[in-house]
Amino acid sequence: MTFDLIDRSGIAEAMRKVRDCHGPVDIVINNAGMSSRGSAADTLLDVDVAVMNLNYFGHVAVTKGSCLLCLYRGLPVQLSDDDFAVNYL
User: Fold this and answer.
1) Is the separation of the CB atoms in 3 and 14 below 8 Å?
2) Rounded average pLDDT over 19-35
3) Can you tell me the distance from the alpha carbon of 49 to that of 62, in angstroms, rounded to the nearest whole number?
4) Which of 2, 45, 46, 74 is deepest in the core (most CB within 10 A)?
5) What number of CA atoms fall less than 13 Å from residue 39's CA on the CB side?
């Protein structure tokens, strides 16, 4: 299932659809994320906020929503396809 992690209501709706279609699940894999290339000094704060909204708050929202799907029998898994690095210069 795909959905926009920035749209919090979309996350809740996706979790309801999964529950209604499949019932409790054993594992939820969330590997969404984004990165920004460039120096910290040159990166706009709006870009940092967008990255945090997706990479942190999006994952928190999916984890909280998936707890209802797993019902103590499964495990939410968060993956990242990009190492975190900050270039200050």
Assistant:
1) yes
2) 80
3) 18
4) 74
5) 4
- Of 47 and 74, which is predicted with more confidence? 47
Taken as a whole, the chain contains a residue count of 89
| Cα-trace Rg, the chain | 15
Tokens 């984890």 found at: 63
**In the numeric block, which tokens belong to residue 15?**
């979790």
85 and 63 Cβ atoms separated by less than 8 Å: no
According to DSSP, residue 87 is labeled B
Residue 31, both tokens: 């590997």
Outline where the chain has alpha helix (H): 8-22, 45-52, 59-70
Round to whole Å and give the CA distance between 16 and 56: 22
At 12, the amino acid letter reads A
Please compute the mean of the pLDDT values over residues 46-60 and round it to a whole number: 89
